[in-house]
Amino acid sequence: MVKAYLRYEPALTFGVIASPESNVCYDPSGRLLLAGALDRLAAWDLKRGLPSVSFAPSSSSSSLAVFCIASSPSAAVSSSIASGHADGSIRLWDAETGACEATLHGHRSAASALRFAPSGAVLASGSKDCDVILWDVVAQAGLFRLRGHRDQVTDLVFLDSGKKLVSCSKDKFIRVWDLETQHCLQIVGGHRSEIWSMDVDSSERFLVSGSVDPELRVFRIRQSAEEGEDWSKWDVLKLFGEIPRQSKERVATVRFNRDGTLVACQAAGKTADIYRVLDETEAMRKAKRRMHRKKEKASAKSMIAEGNGTVIDPSPAQDLQNPAVTVTDVFKLLQVLRASKKICSVSFSPSNPPRGCLATLSISLNNNTLETYSVDSEKVSKMYSIEMHGHRSDIRSVSLNSEDNLLMSTSHNAVKIWNPSTGDCLRTIDSGYGLCSAFVGNRFALVGTKSGTLEIIDIASGSLTEVIEAHAGSIRSIVPIPDEDGTVGARGFVTGSADHDVKFWEYQQLQKSDNDSKQLTVTNVRTLKMTEDVLAVSISPQGKHIAVALLDCNVKVYHMDTLKHFLTLFGHKLPVLCMDISSDGALIVTGSADKNLKIWGMDFGDCHKSIFAHSDSVMDVKFVYRTHYMFSVGKDRTVKYWDADKFELLLTLEGHHAEVWCLTISSRGDFIVTGSHDRSIRRWDRTEEQLFIEEEKEKRLEETFEADLDNDNEYRYGQKDDAPDEGSVGVPGRKTKETVTSADAIMDALDTAEEELKRLNQHKLEEQNNGRAAKFQPNVIMQGYSPSDYVLNVVSSIRPNDLEQALLALPFSDALKLMSYLKEWSLVPSKVELVCRVCLVLLQTHHNQLTTTPAARSLLTELKDILYCRVKECKDTIGFNLAAMDHLKELLAMRSDAPFRDAKAKLMEIRQELSKRSDRPDGNEKRKKKRKKASGES
Question: Which of 187, 701, 676 is nearest to 398 (CA)?
Answer without folding.
Answer: 676
